[in-house]
């Protein structure tokens, strides 16, 4: 197959993945609006998405092990993964942009600054500050406290930064043919990802029940959960993918020359880590 280009057979998985994501998004929206009713669709969407991912991964693994992928196909995979990560960069750039717009423009305007200074007539007692603890509209209750960056967020930062190091060691070990070493370090990466999610779950519990940080706590609560929540979803997906890579590595898949599945998972995980560093700085610290 070295001189040919493999054209995969038509696949139903992209369509089914789109349907699963649609159910998942409908479930999230319904959960926020209607409560328990939406949680059923959310759980169904998660189950459908995981099922599609499992079968889709199975088909790709089978094609790879049959030797159907040429060097040209490998380049296509690399370009496809690169463009996917670029799309993810744009995804998070939109949310960081919303945070920047709110902090730099919208909140000062409400305090009477700039061309939108007329807003000061509506809320004359409002004082611009960030985090926005006291929204201008008295009907909106702001958070009581904010999450300290030097406690749980710092712990999670150490977890993710360390996980990038362990994943790099695992990748280098695989390239040198040290499969056992690669498995051990990859297992450490997966465990660190799991620790991150556990700590973030505890942080959400503290923020919601003790600090008053909810989706209804003004623009600060909304942007906080929007940015950290989507990032947590990406960490979850990345941890699932790395777990699959660990299973494949244990089963004897991959070689020092051919292991792009592992490499693509590593690219994704490093991207997620870089996004967290931005979150830590601009959501928690600054």
From TrEMBL:
CDD domains: Cyt_c_Oxidase_III. It is found in: Cell membrane; Membrane. It is an enzyme of class 7 (translocase). One of its GO terms (cellular component) is plasma membrane. Keywords: Membrane, Translocase, Transmembrane, Transmembrane helix. Its main location: membrane. GO terms for biological process: aerobic electron transport chain. It is a multi-pass membrane protein. InterPro entries: Cyt_c/ubiquinol_Oxase_su3, Cyt_c_oxase_su3_dom, Cyt_c_oxidase-like_su3, Cyt_c_oxidase_su3-like_sf, Cyt_c_oxidase_su3_a-hlx. This is cytochrome-c oxidase. PANTHER family: CYTOCHROME C OXIDASE SUBUNIT 3 (PTHR11403:SF7), CYTOCHROME C OXIDASE SUBUNIT III (PTHR11403). The chain crosses the membrane at residues 12-34, 40-58, 79-102, 150-170, 182-202, 222-247, 267-285. Its EC number is 7.1.1.9. Residues 1-286 form the Heme-copper oxidase subunit III family profile domain. The lineage of its organism: Bacteria, Pseudomonadati, Pseudomonadota, Gammaproteobacteria, Oceanospirillales. GO terms for molecular function: cytochrome-c oxidase activity. Belongs to the cytochrome c oxidase subunit 3 family. PROSITE patterns: COX3.
